Here is the input.
Amino acid sequence: YERSLGGINMLEIKNGYKKFNGKYIFENYSIKFENGKIYGVTGKNGKGKTLLLKILCGYSVLTKGSVYQDTVKLRNKFNFIKNAGIVIEKPDFIENYTLYDNLNTIKMLSDNKDINLDFWIEFYDLFEHKDKKYKDLSLGTKQKVLIIQAFMTNPDILILDECFNGLDEKSHTKTKEYLKNYINDNRLIILTSHIKDDIEELCDEFIEL
Here is the structure.
């Protein structure tokens, strides 16, 4: 797949310090993520991959330092990342709603009213599960729902923490192909994995923690 690897800086941490459980995970840490690229963040469990993504989203606040989306400082006025699809840890889906109703609720709350839920249900072969309550879904199916909610609004930024976990081989392959085709000069994708080989073919740059 071909694409330009240039682009304006989209996300940036400047002189970031983050203390967690009494010790610094990041010290004087600065990094830029530019549009038009897929970044892979790798490292052993406990090295701060998920924490880094939470900081970029505004879900976790730096002990010292700043995070910017373009020129806007995050968490300056309780603001979070904008126009981003996010997969981080356990989501807050409604346990007694069906798979479809959970996704439709997100659609109704979204600014993007052109979301085609049937496309996504078919994409991940979920027709037989769409009327099941979320609490009754398998872990693999829940992972697909989590990925769909990140993808379906066509955001400029995708921040995906271990997004391939629990996916069957067919869904794993389809997700990779979707990401390859999704990136363009105006979009940014950041992936984490504790297995570098799993995302190597996708990424333009790697950050080792």
